[in-house]
């Protein structure tokens, strides 16, 4: 399988200015994803999709390709993933006839993924014949216990016969497990993206390693990531 690694890294960020270049463990956040992706064996090619010249320079310095700059219209706060992938596929096809079988989505905000995880996700996509392999994590905040606002009232988020019968105060262990997209490594077939989806019909899971999971969206998240990085380093030392 010819798998294209795509790292979306736009220049704008409101919560943490210049987040993709923010230092973590002494190097730019973007570098962590590039380095693990370069160690992966399953990626045929690795590109960074950015609208920002400085990010492009950093990406190239750490060994990623930046074959184009993404249009500003595809780098807004509310730009979804689909048009970014479609633009990358179209640009690579038009520039050199490159057509991968799958796109592997690698978010810079998940810096502690491993090369082995990337390889395993691509292998699962190929082996299962699925449209998409999505990394997920088990969540404890179950929607069965959640509410939404209706004017000034709280109403159950899930208005089902079971919820009305059982009420909210049930042991979490008795509820069906629920999974949330983790964004660590997602792989989707090119044909699915070209058809207008980032998932397709058949999606299979990849359970993210909770010991390495962190989602960087605020200055506090970076503080947590630094602490986790130190803990991971200690674990590595103990295993040696």
Shape: globular
**Sheet with most strands: strand arrangement:** 4-1-5-9-6-10
Helix content: 25-40%
Class computed from helices, strands and strand pairing = alpha/beta
Determine Rg (CA atoms, Å).
20 Å
User: Would you report the number of β strands?
Assistant: 10
Strand percentage lies at 15-25%
Average pLDDT rating? 94
Biggest beta-sheet profile:
6 strands, mixed
For the record, the CATH architecture of the largest domain stands as Alpha-Beta Complex
Helical segment count: 7
Number of domains: 2
CATH superfamily of the largest domain: Spore Coat Polysaccharide Biosynthesis Protein SpsA, Chain A
Q: Indicate the CATH topology of the largest domain.
A: Spore Coat Polysaccharide Biosynthesis Protein SpsA, Chain A
User: Termini distance?
Assistant: 34 Å
Spell out the helices and strands N to C: EEEHEHHEHEEEHEHEH
Low-confidence stretches: none
Determine and state the CATH class of the largest domain. Alpha Beta
